Amino acid sequence: GGAPARRSAMNPVSESDPLLGVSDAAGAASRLGWLRTMVVDNAKALYNSHKAKTLVLARSFVNPLQFSRPADQAEALARLRANWGMYKLFYGAGYALVLLYTILSSPLLLIGLALIGASWAYMFVLHDAHTVVNVYGYALGRREKLLALFPLTLIVIAVTGALSSLVWVAFLGTLVITPHAVLHQKAELDALDQLELEAAGGDPAAI
């Protein structure tokens, strides 16, 4: 009868380890579900709040009748400023597409960003920020997690050339978007667009 007692004293948490594992897995699943719900709900709310404005501006954005050559440099600059403010949603989407293409076309950059994202998600999403995580025998609290992840992130950014890729995205995106902003006439809502926006609950003055 003494041997089992000695084994229990040497490893007092062995019998409860499976329960702790189940609890950790349930907590991680709960946090993932919360994050997914938050992202989806916020995306839906953002889309619904800007849907009317986006549909109205989309027609003007691609309307071939609203493109012309500016008379001079002053008009070109005026169009550039006005259209950047008016169509920032579409131009932002253009930058996002260029960024996505850049990431997918570079396996090293894709793997590096996936590594960084997975590391931060494991430490701060799957586990609570203040939860101690054991990694290769080392107990990492919140401070230790940050001290480990920041250098790792900087190393991955340096190795994958992420900064130069961001500069390339900014250059290429601007190169693609600027001609549209200069050649497109300054957009103004007509009476029909204003009525449509008001009927959808939007504010014409906000555009």
What would you note in describing this structure?
The protein is an all-alpha fold and 207 residues long. The protein is 74% helix and 3% strand. The protein has 8 helices and 2 strands, in the order H-H-H-H-H-E-E-H-H-H. It has helices spanning 2-10, 17-62, 73-86, 88-104, 107-124, 142-160, 162-183, 191-199; strands spanning 133-135, 138-140. Strands 1-2 form a two-stranded antiparallel ribbon. Helix 3 packs across helix 7 (162-183), helix 4 packs antiparallel against helix 7 and helix 5 runs antiparallel to helix 6. The chain starts with a helix and ends in an 8-residue tail after the last helix. Residues 2-22 have low confidence and may be disordered.
Core attributes:
207 residues; 8 helices; disordered N terminus; two-stranded antiparallel ribbon; mainly alpha
Distance between the termini: 81 Å
Number of helices: 8
Q: Main sheet?
A: 2 strands, antiparallel
The assigned structural class equals: mainly alpha
Rg on CA atoms, Å: 27 Å
Q: Strand share of the residues? A: under 5%
Outline type: elongated
Query: Order of helices and strands, N to C?
Result: HHHHHEEHHH
What assembly state would you assign to the polypeptide chains in this entry?
single chain
Which strands sit side by side, in order, in the main sheet?
Answer: 1-2
User: How many β-strand runs?
Assistant: 2
